[in-house]
Design goal:
The protein is an alpha/beta fold. It folds into three domains: 24-204, 3-Layer(aba) Sandwich (Rossmann fold); 210-289, Helicase, Ruva Protein, domain 3, CATH 1.10.8; 293-362, Orthogonal Bundle (Arc Repressor Mutant, subunit A), CATH 1.10.10.10. Helix content is 51%, strand content 10%. It contains 14 helices and eight strands. The protein binds adenosine-5'-diphosphate and magnesium ion. Residues 6-11, 13, 16-19, 45, 47-53, 244-245, 247-248 line the site of adenosine-5'-diphosphate.
Length: 368
């Protein structure tokens, strides 16, 4: 049997741990069709928490129900790419007026027009209408999924929202599920870019429960004939913190250790696996997340890392010897970047496991 774990962003894990029932409303929506609340859903959560994996699960469910799925990442020009995919589907269904390409991407990647010019917008909506009417006759529908919505161009997003709202008003079987970092998504909705999206179902993802990870590891390893004690499974599960990316990383390393140790995991092997996984987590998730942080941002984060749990802005201000408005400014920046969150009023905490420990060991901030 091959290593089933998938420690790669966006990869489908062997088991979606702790997500039972999260897509119930969406699935119900697929059955009722047009206008169902679950057909408008927003998935939010920290990096590596499993947003993309859940988005894929939603797509699979839609496909099983015979729906057409158009999935995009919200990089510039996504609205044009959605249009192009719709056109291809219409063609495939043999009803294509087809006509010109609808993509908004300019010549040879030189100019990238993020917004469709007015005449193309009309095309886009007309295409959508045609495709949706056809699918309505077949008693199925069309699902758009848009990942990484936090980086979406505001104009493109409001255009998509306006069109989807229009389709819903016309009673057409349209669904829209998108995913992004929580703070950025809240900002987006509060800015009034797409007021109607505020009514969307919210699925806010958190870490899985450790005992669920334990159960999943136990069955995966037992079924593969890998021997490991209950205590060691418990230890490994705890080390994941229930954080999906670490569940995959640690599982993957455990499996590798088992392969080189005659399918038997001893304490030494488990510790080695956890160690390797932690290092990998640091170089992928943590360093990538920090790559966009400025030196001042990092000072703020290091001041936070002096505590073992949530910190107040006041304490950070004292540690940095900074004014409250400066602290508030960095706090807001870091929340929007998805590095920290506000678990309780006035306090902030890290969103990614291991970030605190990483900051402590890489370069301890000097006390002022
Ligand atoms: N519920 C889950 N249980 C176990 N592993 C998961 C779960 N959700 C996601 N994963 C795994 O965690 C990693 C991160 O998932 P991903 O969907 O890319 O996160 P995000 O999009 O939130 O950054 C991937 O390796 C994925 O296979
Ligand atoms: Mg993702």
């Amino acid at each position: 049997m091959m290593n089933p774990f998938r420690p790669t962003a966006g990869a489908t894990p062997p088991e979606l741990i702790g997500r039972e029932g999260t897509l119930d409303e969406f699935e119900y929506g697929l059955q009722i069709g047009s206008g169902a609340p679950g057909l408008l859903t927003i998935i939010t959560g920290a990096r590596g928490i499993g947003k993309t994996a859940l988005l894929s699960a939603a797509q699979d469910k839609a496909v099983q129900q015979g729906w057409i799925v158009v999935s995009e990442t919200a990089t510039p020009g996504f609205i044009g790419r959605i249009g192009e995919t719709m056109r291809l589907h219409l063609e495939e269904l043999g009803k294509g007026p087809a006509g010109r390409r609808i993509t908004a991407v300019g010549v040879a990647g030189f100019t990238v027009t993020t917004q469709l010019p007015p005449e193309r917008q009309v095309d886009w909506r007309r295409l959508g209408n045609q495709l949706l009417s056809l699918l309505a006759e077949k008693k199925t529908g069309l699902l758009f999924t848009v990942d990484e919505i936090h980086s979406a161009d505001r104009t493109e997003l409001s255009q998509l929202a306006a069109d989807v709202q229009h389709f819903i008003r016309d009673g057409l079987p349209i669904g829209l599920v998108f995913a992004g970092l929580p703070a950025a998504v809240s900002d987006l909705l509060n800015e009034g870019v797409a007021t109607f999206l505020r009514r969307a179902e919210r699925i806010d993802l958190h870490a899985a429960i450790i005992s669920d990870v334990e159960r999943s590891y136990a069955s995966t390893f037992r079924e593969a004939g890998i021997s490991i004690s209950d205590d060691l499974i418990q230890h490994a599960a705890k080390a994941t913190g229930g954080y999906p990316f670490l569940i995959q990383l640690i599982g993957y390393q455990l499996w590798r250790q088992a392969e080189i140790n005659n399918m038997a995991l001893k304490e030494k092997n488990v510790l080695q696996a956890i160690d390797a996984a932690t290092r990998r987590h640091e170089t992928t998730v943590i360093e990538a997340a920090l790559s966009t942080a400025s030196d001042k941002d990092k000072d703020f984060l290091r001041a936070m890392a002096e505590d073992d749990g949530p910190v107040t802005a006041g304490d950070i201000g004292k540690r940095l010897n900074a004014r409250s408005n400066v602290v508030a400014n960095y706090r807001a920046r870091l929340i929007a970047a998805g590095l920290i969150e506000a678990p309780a009023y006035g306090k902030v905490d890290f969103t990614i496991p291991g970030l605190r420990e990483y900051l402590r060991k890489t370069n301890p901030r000097e006390r002022h």
